[in-house]
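DATA SHEET
Item: assembly model
Revision: 1
Owner: S.N.
Input lines:
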Amino acid sequence: ELKVEQNPLFLSMQEGKNYTIYCNYSTTSDRLYWYRQDPGKSLESLFVLLSNGAVKQEGRLMASLDTKARLSTLHITAAVHDLSATYFCAVPTHSGGGADGLTFGKGTHLIIQP
Amino acid sequence: ETGVTQTPRHLVMGMTNKKSLKCEQHLGHNAMYWYKQSAKKPLELMFVYNFKEQTENNSVPSRFSPECPNSSHLFLHLHTLQPEDSALYLCASSQDWTPQYFGPGTRLLVL
């Protein structure tokens, strides 16, 4: 059974600081997704990482994937308050291609304080 | 309408009621999904439909009955639910492996 683990689950940090969220998964996968969820809202897609060594950046967020280590990281640079949200990583439940349900981590609740 | 829409946005029902949740995607995607998000558990996949055919039922109790009449519409029929079924029900769609786009969700309370 696929397990997806995120850490930390809760993170409070100051504006301007850097930090990294980690996502480990238990079975082979060549795809990994990162989502953001604001309180009371739905999930917003941030990144899809499709191969070993993939790196994607958008603004102050950068995501990377190491399929051999079964590890993805979401790095936050010079955090600003607007990035406060819950961040989820997710991996396809089955290793085949095409449409597939996702197994999600528990999420990292990020609070950025002025 | 754009993206993925869900109705109703909020629903309160008794344990003996029957209700349905509706999802519509305006993205031309071929796959649709139901997920459950509750306070006590991570996001849980419930059902997957690919080209209208159910390809996954993640051991969901029979009191939840999905229906996918075409690639744009997905329903979740509810009957004799339990209080522990109270949660946010999220619909999503995708084109193959592309990121799943989520609707706003239906917040369900079972009394």
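QC remark: Chain B has a mean pLDDT of 93.
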